[in-house]
Design brief:
This is Methyltransferase domain-containing protein. With 274 residues, the chain is of the alpha/beta class. It has a single domain, classed as Vaccinia Virus protein VP39 (Rossmann fold, 3-Layer(aba) Sandwich), CATH 3.40.50. Helix content is 31%, strand content 23%. A seven-stranded mixed sheet has the order 3-2-1-4-5-11-8, with helices on both faces. β4, α8 and β5 form a beta-alpha-beta unit. The longest helix has 20 residues. It starts with a helix and ends with a strand.
């Protein structure tokens, strides 16, 4: 499994620089507007509630756009990612946005050792994170280890139904596993999900899917209680070019034809019991 993380780290180190320069991430807006929030956090603003004074950690934080956004909503945030290149961009963003955020470079599975057990009121995971981890159970153990009793997990993620579809085909075509699988899905793709000015040289990636049942069961097994779960017909990127349309108000993408056919993402909340 170490090889898979090394493969993915090379890919994300290269993506970080390209993503930071991409207009789709819009990093300059965070410095220009002190009230600006990332689209992902803005989408879930009603579900996040009051974060004032909470100690939060954003796992797999990438460029830190969601991390800075949560900080702007009042949380004292820590960010963790395995890509040093991404964290360099995240620190630049936080500095430009006048956000006091503590960033750490580490594999998410090592987060408790790096950050300490039971320190956080909020564990946040943004969209497109769990697919890079081979085991939902190991991830859930990390979440439980980081949270204090009564602390909350908040996750917005791509739906495993979406991950199981072939994005280059009709949405009705199921090509990839829905349930967790031991061997990774291997892709070699010179493109990424935002507009960039050159192809990616380290395009090789390893990824995994995890069913909703496996994710929820893993959290229950590690002492968390599910408190909220909402499925959405939209996702923050164009999952099927030519077949999805962007909502100008939310920035989210959904199927042009009967979007209710596809559960594209979900928001899940759970609390660590005492």
């Amino acid at each position: 499994m170490t090889d898979s993380f090394a493969v993915n780290k090379a890919n994300w180190d290269e993506r970080a620089v390209l993503h930071a320069a991409s207009p789709d991430y819009g990093l300059a807006r965070f410095a220009a507007d002190p009230a600006h929030l990332s689209g992902v956090v803005r989408f879930d603003r009603p579900r996040l509630g009051d974060l004032t004074g909470l100690r939060g950690v954003h796992l797999q934080c990438h460029l830190g756009t969601d991390t800075v956004s949560l900080s702007r909503l009042g949380a004292a945030m820590t960010g963790l990612d395995f890509s040093g290149a991404a964290l360099a961009e995240a620190r630049r963003l936080a500095s430009a946005a006048a956000a006091d955020i503590d960033f750490h470079e580490a594999n998410v599975y090592d987060a408790v050792d790096v950050l300490g057990a039971g320190r956080f009121d909020l564990v946040y995971t943004g969209i497109g994170a769990l697919c890079w981890l081979p085991s939902a159970a190991r991830w859930a153990a990390v979440v439980a280890g980081l949270l204090r009793p009564g602390g909350r997990l908040f996750i917005r993620e791509g739906h495993p139904m979406l991950w199981a579809h072939d994005e280059g085909a009709n949405p009705a075509v199921l090509r990839y596993p829905y349930f967790e699988h031991a061997e990774p899905l291997v892709f070699d793709d010179p493109e990424t999900y935002v507009a960039v000015d050159r192809p990616i040289e380290h395009g090789l990636t390893h990824s995994w899917n995890h069913s909703l049942g496996e994710i929820i069961t893993a959290l229950l097994d590690h002492g968390l209680t599910l408190t909220a779960f909402t499925e959405h017909d939209s996702v923050p990127w164009n999952g099927w070019p030519g077949q999805m349309v962007r909502d100008e108000d939310t920035g989210e993408w959904r199927l042009k034809d009967t979007p209710s056919r596809l559960a594209a993402s979900y928001t899940l909340q759970a609390v660590k019991t005492g």
